[in-house]
Specification:
By secondary structure, this protein is of the alpha+beta class. The protein has helices at 8-18, 22-31, 36-45, 83-86, 89-105, 108-111, 114-124, 169-182, 194-210, 215-233, 248-252; strands at 61-69, 72-80, 129-137, 144-152, 155-165, 239-240, 243-247, 256-264.
Length: 267
């Protein structure tokens, strides 16, 4: 393994990302040659890492806007350097205008506002740039689109769009609220990269061995934990937030999720 240098800030970042103690984080970085991902994985294997929500990790700043009009939905992220600027009236107004333009006229509307973004950066004395954008258009399909925007301190920080076939707009909105807080990665399990699943299996196996689980029980323990890991990431298999006795798939009934998208500041 090639050696990499790491700083005290790297140790702090690893602590925030894993919930591990300072000495454990420093030791993991030393043992992994400064490789952040390998160090995080090592901490999990040793049982030194705790689940830390993405919302609690250090993140870049910005604001989101969500627009849903008839059969079109759009999300726009505008990025900046500080929380102070992200909450400013001028910044929030611009991101709202950008989302409205994207919904109405498509990506060309964002290109046309490039100069306005640069000018706002000059006025507010920060580097401001367009971040992630999403646009759903149901067209003649008859599908329904709705979304949810979670706000903090007057700015959008977590936005979701959902397109459903055979469902209502209210159902699409309910599902968007679920996605905002459950944070699925994919719609169904066959969309998870096989390499990622196998890497998680190996990590869980190492963790179970370090816990002293009997060799004869390892496969069952790992399979159980891997199933839970998969369910956390697959929307249709997640317990529905308003009734955890049923899955999202069960709550949907005859409706089908065509696609969904989530954009979250700092994620």
């Amino acid at each position: 393994m090639s050696e990499r240098t790491f700083s005290a800030q790297d140790v702090q970042s690893l602590r925030r990302a894993t919930g591990a103690g300072m000495l454990d984080a420093k030791r993991a970085l030393e043992e992994s040659g400064g490789d952040f991902e390998a160090a995080a994985r090592r901490l999990r294997e040793l049982g030194k890492a705790s689940a830390v929500k993405r919302a609690e990790r250090e993140s870049s700043q910005g604001a989101l806007s969500l627009v849903v009009e008839s059969d079109v939905g759009a999300i726009v992220e505008l990025r900046c350097e500080t929380d102070f600027v992200a909450k400013s009236a001028e910044f929030v107004q611009l991101v709202e205008e950008l989302a409205g333009g994207l919904a109405a006229d498509g990506p060309d509307a964002l290109t046309a506002r490039g100069e306005d973004i640069e000018k706002l950066g000059v006025v507010l004395k920060e580097h401001i740039e367009l971040g992630r954008t999403v646009r759903f258009a149901a067209g003649a399909s008859g599908n329904v689109i709705d979304g949810y925007l979670h706000e903090q301190n007057g700015r959008g920080v977590n936005a979701v769009l959902v397109e459903l076939a055979g469902g209502s707009r209210s159902l699409a909105h309910e599902l968007a609220v679920h996605i905002a807080f459950a944070r699925p990665v994919v719609l169904r399990r066959d969309e998870l990269p096989a390499a990622e699943v196998e890497e998680e299996r190996a990590t869980l196996l190492a963790a179970a061995r370090n816990e002293g689980k009997p060799e004869a029980a390892l496969e069952k323990v790992v399979d159980g934990r891997l199933t839970g890991w998969i369910k956390e990431r697959c929307l249709l298999e997640q317990p529905y937030v308003r009734d955890e006795k049923q899955t999202v798939a069960g709550h949907l009934g005859n409706a089908t999720v065509v696609r969904f998208a989530q954009v979250e500041i700092g994620a």
